[in-house]
TrEMBL record:
Keywords from the UniProt entry: Hydrolase
Top-level taxon: Bacteria
Organism listed in the record: Streptomyces nigrescens
GO molecular function list: amidase activity
Signal peptide: none
Record PANTHER family: GLUTAMYL-TRNA(GLN) AMIDOTRANSFERASE SUBUNIT A, MITOCHONDRIAL (PTHR11895:SF7), TRANSAMIDASE (PTHR11895)
Residue ranges constituting the Amidase domain according to the UniProt record: 28-447
The family this protein is said to belong to: Belongs to the amidase family.
Enzyme Commission number(s) of this protein: 3.5.1.4
Name of the molecule in the record: Amidase
One Pfam family, short name: Amidase
C-alpha cells in the first residue's frame, strides 16, 4: 500500500511508514530535496544541501530495510544546523568565507546516523549564533514560512524554517540564549532545550562556556521527543554527562496534576522589555488551558538576582572562541568583532567568577521549584520582527532590541536546565507566538509530558502555513 504526502509529514510517521514498507527512503529523501530546492529562493533555510550523498544514503537505507533491519530513524530525512560538523561539509556557522570540509561527524551526527537518519543538509544560522534572526551577507535572509516578510527567529532559524515549511519532518538546532526556543515560538513549532550535556557537543567538550546545548525542533511533541532520544548521549570527552531519560516515553505519559507558576517577570538587564499585548493574551490562554486540564496555576516570580552578570562573560567568551576558528576574521560582522573583543576583556578572572556563581544562581532561582513543579513564561516578549529590523543596527542597539524582543529564554542557559517552547497561538497579524515551560535540573520528562497534554488539547500541529509545504500529489515509490 502506498502513502500520500499528507500522511507522512511527521518524523515518527515517516519512521513507521518506512518500517512497515509503505514508502521508501528514496521517495522521502527525494521529496525533501525537491522541497528544499523549490523554496530556497523564498524561505532560504539551507546553507548546504547534500543532495547526491543523501540520495545514495537513502538507497542504502532501502536495501537495509528490505533486508529486515530496523532502527529508530532508518531512512528518515532530517537536517542539522550549520554549527554542527558533518563529515565532508564545511562548518561556517553563519560566517562568510571559505571553510575547509570537516573530516569527521560531530558526536550528535554520528548518533543520528547510527539511528539510520539521512542528513539532507545543514541549515542557516546567523553569524556565530548571536542574534534572534537568521540573516547575513554570507547566505542572505532566511524567512518565516508563515509570513516571508518576517524572521523565523534565530539563531536556529534555518532549522525552524525547514520544519515549518515541511522540508524535513524535524531538525536539530542549538540553544545558547533561546536559539531553539525562540525560533520554535516564532515558527509555530515545539522546541526543546535539554539539560546541559544531554546531547553531546563533541568535538567541543562544552559549547560557549557551557551555556549552549543542542535541541530538536518539530511540529509535535512526539517528534521532538523522538529526535531528542536518538540524539542524546555522550562522548568520553564531554564535560557534562547527565543521567539518561526516555523522552518519547514521557510524551505518552499523563503528567499528573502539577503546580505551575505563571511569570511575566524577565531577569534584570538594565534595558526596557515591554511585553506585547498579543503575547500576554496568548500565554494567558495557555495558562487557562492548563488550569482547565486540572493543574494548579497561579502567578509567581522566580528570584533571578543579577544572573545577567554571569551570562555576558560566558556568551562573549564563546563568541571569541568561535571567532578564532574563522579563516578570515576580516569578513566578520562588526558586532561579532566587538563581542569577541568583549569576550577577551571579560576572560580570565571575570569569566571564572561568572562560572563559579552558577551554583548560587541555581539555588536562588531553583527555590521556585519547592512550591511549584513548572514555570510558565512567554518564550518571547514580541511577535517575530520583520526581516532587516535588527540586521543594520549597531552592536549596542542590536543588544537592546534583542533583549527587548527575547528576554525570557537566556537565564535557563546560565542554569543549564531544560525548557520547552510550545505554540501558543497567533498575533492579531497572524504571526506565531510561543509559551515556555521551564523546569529544574533533569526535568525534561515532566515538561515533555505536560507539553504533550497541551498538544492533545490545543491541536497546534494541525495548523500549517499557507502554501507550505510545496504541494505534491503523493510520495513517489
Amino acid at each position: 500500500m502506498g502513502a500520500t504526502a499528507g500522511e507522512l509529514e511527521g518524523l515518527a510517521e515517516q519512521a513507521r511508514a518506512l518500517a512497515e514498507g509503505r514508502v521508501t527512503s528514496t521517495a522521502l529523501v527525494r521529496r525533501s530535496l525537491e522541497r528544499i530546492e523549490a523554496t530556497q529562493g523564498t524561505v532560504n533555510a539551507f546553507r548546504r544541501v547534500r543532495a547526491e550523498a543523501a540520495m545514495a544514503e537513502a538507497a542504502e537505507a532501502d536495501r537495509r530495510l528490505a533486508a529486515g533491519e530496523r532502527l529508530p530513524l532508518l531512512g528518515v530525512p532530517v537536517a542539522v544546523k550549520d554549527d554542527t560538523d558533518v563529515a565532508g561539509e564545511p562548518t561556517a556557522f553563519g560566517c562568510a568565507g571559505e571553510f575547509p570540509p570537516k573530516e569527521r561527524d560531530a558526536e550528535v551526527v554520528r548518533r543520528l546516523r547510527a539511528a539510520g537518519a539521512i542528513i539532507v543538509g545543514k541549515t542557516n544560522a546567523c553569524e556565530l549564533g548571536q542574534w534572534p534572526f537568521t540573516e547575513g551577507p554570507a547566505f542572505g535572509n532566511t524567512c518565516n514560512p508563515w509570513n516571508l516578510a518576517h524572521t523565523p527567529g534565530g539563531s536556529s532559524g534555518g532549522s525552524a524554517a525547514a520544519v515549518a515549511a515541511g522540508l524535513v519532518p524535524a531538525a536539530l538546532g542549538t540553544d545558547g540564549a533561546g536559539s531553539v526556543r525562540i525560533p520554535a515560538a516564532w515558527s509555530h513549532l515545539v522546541g526543546i532545550k535539554p539539560q546541559r550535556g544531554r546531547i553531546s557537543t563533541w568535538p567541543d567538550p562544552e559549547a560557549f562556556q557551557g551555556i549552549t546545548g543542542i535541541g530538536p525542533l518539530a511540529r509535535t511533541v512526539e517528534d521532538a521527543a523522538l529526535l531528542l532520544d536518538v540524539a542524546s548521549g555522550n562522548h568520553d570527552g564531554d564535560l557534562h554527562r547527565p543521567p539518561a531519560i526516555a523522552a518519547r516515553e514521557a510524551a505518552g505519559r499523563d503528567p499528573g496534576r502539577l503546580r505551575i507558576a505563571l511569570s511575566w517577570k524577565a531577569a534584570f538587564t538594565f534595558t526596557p522589555k515591554p511585553l506585547h499585548p498579543d503575547v500576554r493574551a496568548a500565554v494567558t490562554g495557555v495558562a487557562r488551558t492548563l488550569a482547565r486540564l486540572g493543574h494548579f496555576v497561579e502567578e509567581a516570580e522566580p528570584d533571578y538576582g543579577l544572573v545577567g552578570l554571569a551570562f555576558v562573560p560566558r556568551a562573549t567568551a564563546g563568541v571569541g572562541e568561535w571567532a578564532d576558528r574563522v579563516p578570515d576574521r576580516s569578513l566578520l560582522d562588526r558586532r561579532t568583532r566587538e563581542a569577541a573583543r568583549m569576550g577577551r576583556l571579560l576572560g580570565g578572572p571575570v569569566l571564572r567568577r561568572a562560572r563559579a556563581a552558577e551554583k548560587r544562581q541555581q539555588r536562588r532561582i531553583g527555590a521556585l521549584f519547592g512550591p511549584y513543579d513548572v514555570l510558565l513564561t512567554p518564550t518571547t516578549a514580541t511577535p517575530p520582527p520583520r526581516i532587516g529590523t535588527l540586521a543594520k543596527l549597531s552592536g549596542w542597539r542590536t543588544d537592546q532590541a534583542m533583549i527587548a524582543a527575547c528576554p525570557y529564554a537566556w537565564p535557563w542557559n546560565v542554569l543549564g536546565w531544560p525548557g520547552v517552547s510550545v505554540p501558543a497561538g497567533f498575533s492579531t497579524d497572524g504571526l506565531p507566538l510561543g509559551a515556555q515551560l521551564l523546569g529544574p535540573a533533569h526535568g525534561e520528562p515532566q515538561l515533555i509530558s505536560l507539553a504533550a497534554q497541551l498538544q492533545d488539547d490545543l491541536r497546534w500541529h494541525e495548523r500549517r502555513p499557507a502554501g507550505h509545504p510545496v504541494p505534491y500529489d503523493g510520495v513517489r515509490p
